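Hey, resending since the last one bounced:
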Amino acid sequence: MLSSVNIEIEGNTVIVAFQQIDDLIGSTVTINIETSLREGITVTETETLNRNGFQTQGRFYVGTVGQNIRSNLIVLTAQLDAYACFDVVGDPRNHEYVYKLDVVLFVPSDVTPNQGWRRRISELMLYHQRFVMKWMEYWGYGPKSFGLPLDENGMVDIVMVRGRQPLASYPYSTVSANAMISEINQWYQTHGLTRHNPNHLFIITSVPTRFNISVPFFGFGRNAFALDFPGMARAMFNICPITNERTGNDAPMGTALIGGFHHEMHHGLGLPHAGNTRSQAQNPQYGVSLMGHGNSTYGRTPTFFTHACAAILNVSRVSSFVRRPFYNATQASLIIEQTTVAGHYITVGGSFTASENVTDVIVRFIRYPETSAGGAQGYTSIPFVTRPIGNTFEITVPIWELSHRNYNWRIHTEIVMENGARHSRLSPAVYRRVWHANGYTLETDWNRIDRSNWQIVYSPDTQDDPDWAVCNIITDNNLAWHSRWRPTPLPPLPHRIDIDMQQIHNVSFIEIVHRADVANVNLYLSQDGVTWVSVGYLRIATNANVSGYPGLSRTLRLASPMNARYVRLVVTESARNTEASIWNVFVHSPR
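The structure tokens again:
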């Protein structure tokens, strides 16, 4: 029974407050409010009334069953659960995050939102904040996670957006993702809503079943897509992801969609794929990396957040307690100067320059022939993190930590900057695991030829400026070669550079570290500087967003090693009319 009901009117708002509820669990209460809607009310305003309905007061959880607005009679039907007050608390510093993640429930036109969606999704996301806090503190970044907007009940303030098309019109594709983002942006504009964060958007599609459903479910730039199926809830967990303790629910979860929900959300926050080391896989304190195959183990068996993921999230906009620029244009360069295998250890070191403060350096072992930890790649990559020392870094990795994966590896090195930007280099060397002296070691065909006595013997199109001299491409001075840009007229394409290595070497591959204005380079080798053999070309995808930044590496691996003393580069295409520039040229011989 209801012991008392308060009805208050504040402006245009009618507040119905139930002071005490007994024996009304699951009951339906119909509230009839007879009022006058002002003259000239528009269709959009009526839709807003239907969308907003009413908001709960106090701690009682109220789910809207139905509502109807017609003429001057508003009928709201709600279901109250007196014992379902929302008391889940996520990150206690949530209110301190300056930029919070925008969360949207996208409901196709032929779909009814699943019962209790706001409560269930809120519980999952707030508990996940605590999971992230645990690992952020463990890896040395303090007890922090990511900001979430909360409503007056402490639930996540999720905006429900009605799609214009039926569910079948939003299949798993980037085309659907773009269409949904466009509709969401228009919804926000039409309904006068303001984004909490212009950079990150988490879109959850409401679906009627978890089986045989095709909707966007991936990271997409700084956006992420997941789904909400009937009954998707924390109660499905077999273990608590935070403590790894058994929940008492022994029924198999039967789905990877909840782990995938968080996995994809983190892609939208900038986190790439990341696997785990051998010792982590064997230690129940860790288990499987969430950003690896942990999307299928989260809530089922031990799952954790890698150091590399924590390093990247630490500088994400949604994890900032300070209002400052993020993801702004950044200039950076990165040189890998050392990859030394000594017994059962490998040491990677190098130097960098950056226009922003560098917080961490990630050295990642990527399964060959993968080239990154993005897209469908990188699930089994194994990252290690070190802090920079000035503008240098060095880390020694036990090869044993890679031994649970019988793969060939390439080394991907990345600097993480305070504004959330990252800059990386991928070593051309391929390492293979071998057993040696009662343990695993790595062998490689990589052998970078010493450039200390190399000379440039031909380069007629070089700018007359020491900062852009052609000799920069064969030295480690963080400077580049640039074709002449003044005075006019400028030299036309192609631009040719001939390098004398001073002696004959057995060449296996050629590496060019370029800027984004170079589109195509033809490569030739010669033993005498007279007779030249074409060995191939490097086709380079241009990207204006990284124009001017060093460290974009392309490698041409020869079909078979070839003896040569001279190397010729011919730039035949450019993204900037006739201008072109290159940072470094390396030549490698077989090990």
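Residues 19-28, 52-77, 79-83, 543-551 have pLDDT under 50 and may be disordered.

Sorry for the duplicate.
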